[in-house]
Amino acid sequence: MASAEFDAIVIGAGSVGNPTAYFLAREGARVLVLDELSASGQGQNKAAIGGVRATHSDPAKIRTAELSLEVFSRWKEETGTDIGWKKGGYCFPAYDEKIEATLRGLLPVQKAHRLAIDWLGTEEIRRVVPGINPEGLRGGTYSPDDGQVNPLAASESFTREALRHGAQYRYRERVVDLRVEDHTVTGVRTDSGEYRAPVVVNASGAHASQVSALAGVSTPILPESHEAGISAPVRPFLDPLVVDLRPGPEGRTANFYFGQDAHGQVIFCYSPKEKIPGENRSSTFEFMPIAAARLVNLLPRLRNLMIRRVWRGLYPMTPDGNPLVGWAPGVTGLLLGVGLCGQGFMLGPGVGMNLASLVLHGRPVIDPDVFRLLSPARDLYAGTRESLR
Ligand SMILES: Cc1cc2nc3c(=O)[nH]c(=O)nc-3n(C[C@H](O)[C@H](O)[C@H](O)COP(=O)(O)OP(=O)(O)OC[C@H]3O[C@@H](n4cnc5c(N)ncnc54)[C@H](O)[C@@H]3O)c2cc1C
User: What is the pTM of this model?
Assistant: First the structure.
């Protein structure tokens, strides 16, 4: 390590790259972060609505998100910076039998992982989500330890802390090549310089396939378009982030989710029913009417809410919907923190902690057998083959 210019180079100052740089630098590693954009968190990080939960069903995501929750919830105490952490929980209301069965079916796994989550009856859900449409409401799950964070504030703060610990950041530098000698990554070339390090972390989000390909490694990351919006602030009335798993009555949308952030703004997002592959980030004409209808249907009291802005960003998807985290197969020194799908902000700090620990201590923070579920060497198409049988 000592003969190299840096101990590690991180490609991407985003949801994954910034915490990774911070955890590396905090332990004394010499870190360089490169981003083609002009500031930190300007890729998909700032598109996220900031939901953070450990209540997944996959053990690796549960353990990784638990690390993230610990980091986010203690960040202000540890650094003095407010990143908008709000421990308001997550609520998944159920309006039909099928969704109730799905949610109830996940509870044993989640409880086996000692997650704070339970099924609440109709009246309790109405207390947790004041004003929720009671018509057909059957109850729902509620996990009080989950929460929300402001993604841009978080990424700026991770960056400041990484810089304070000696990391270097270079913006407006696009990585155009990875130096590979004898199947070993030795550094990167950008459009304006060359840097050497024995470890290169690919945290380049939606462009991760192209970046891995520079070292001859295949990482199938398929960006998908998603839109979101935010209101003007209103008096705090809502604690949890609410996820409605029903398809929209308009036939265009799958789930819809929203919450009220630490500043009182209502932030919302839906998943289109048909996936929209590609990198189109232009807002659409149809988003706001559909989102408004879904919001007002769930919470009629929001019918006069003033919307401030909308935006569109990308989920960096993988074929099996799970992130690729760990050493790249077939080449030494390339570490992957990619394919975070729609959960990269909430998993980012946990992924960063594990990546830093792999570099500095040769093992992840979480149980290696659980961490292996995210291995880039796994069969990403196993589920597809299974469903064809
Ligand atoms: C509408 C919407 C809502 C979302 N809501 C949530 C949410 O509530 N919770 C959640 O957890 N997630 C959410 N997400 C998903 C989340 O935003 C992403 O999963 C996450 O930001 C991906 O993190 P990343 O670090 O992989 O990518 P990014 O944050 O995009 O970082 C990658 C960085 O790499 C840089 N880069 C790329 N190629 C190069 C190159 N060749 N050279 C130099 N730099 C390069 C980019 O400029 C970028 O800054 C949401 C996404 C959208 C679109």
Answer: 0.97
